[in-house]
Amino acid sequence: MLGAFDQRGGERAGGVVTVDEKRGVILAVHADPTQAEGPITDLGDVILLPALVNAHTHCELSDIREPLGRPGMPFVDWIREVIAWKEANLATPQARQNAIRRGWLEVKRGGAARVCDVVSALRYGDLPVYDDPLLHAESHLELMGHALGWAEDALLKAREFVGRPQASRRVAAGRRSGWQAGLSPHAPYTASLELVASIADVSRKAACPVSIHLAESEEELELLATGGGPFRELLLERGIYRKEHFPGGRTPLDYLEALRPAAAVSVIHGTFLSDAEIDFIARQPNFRLVYCPRTHAYFHDRSWPLARRLARCGSVLIGTDSRASNPDLSIFDELKFVSATAPDVSPRDLIAGSLSASAASSAGNRLNDWLVIEAPTDVADPYEAALHVRATLKGFLYEWRSRDA
Prior knowledge:
CATH class of the largest domain: Alpha Beta
CATH topology of the largest domain: TIM Barrel
Strand order of the largest sheet: 2-1-5-14-15
């Protein structure tokens, strides 16, 4: 073994890991193999990495084989493609449940022990019962509404979703991991400012997390500022545009301020947030910014200012987004992509930031909380080796224990 990292991203130089087979935990990491007792299984040239968090995805879109549309296409045209695909493929609760289950499996295979998943289920019962002991899932109910009746219906669904008894533990009997209800007022072009503020109040009272797609495109900023542009045309096509809902003169900051009372807020994408809006997020202890690297690259030639936002916010979480804009749901491959394309962010800082997110959901030394990374031996720095283009995720450490049992 080349080495291991602890839950804060610090390196543990080591050659042998001692485990308790019955309890399924790591007892010690030894640099000197002679310090280990008992039989030794050779894992090869690998690095052990704590399991990660996929901070944003849409598992219900996991049956999409390749990203919809084409790279760099107008964002609103891509939204049309997503709407058409969902209407054709998610017409029944069973279809949605099956897709979400497949998505959960792909997320786990991609190195995540925790996922924040946005779902557009119509009712609480449309979601599959969570039964995976190795993945903690937050399901954020997607909520839309501008017209009064539509927004009121969304608010009723939100209260029902998070108000169910045992809503934070909707888990099959005997399972150790967990499921939690969350809410997602989708985006400014689909959720009114009043609905967003009401959802924040529901979140505060129910102590549930919230996520919102915000400042994802220039077309969104145009709609907020002027009430017009390509999003206006899309909403007119769908029969849901009303001039009074988009009076102009608004910015993403209005939505950030409306969300301030929420228990926890994930701001997804934030590509076109201003410096003042980034500073607002940095000042809120309950806010976190989420970057989806390969999805961003699918739409934009400009780079996402990760290093600058890390410096201002302290941390930025990483998500895969969905297969509608990404080839897979592997958070490990997402981190490798960032490492290869953001030379101003060191692999050490990237790993430390990603692991600080997973540490909160990890028991620390359980075998199912650790990833086995086959790393190149000709790269001296273990952080660079772990996220090198030639590094490969081989699976969770418990899988090796099972194979050799």
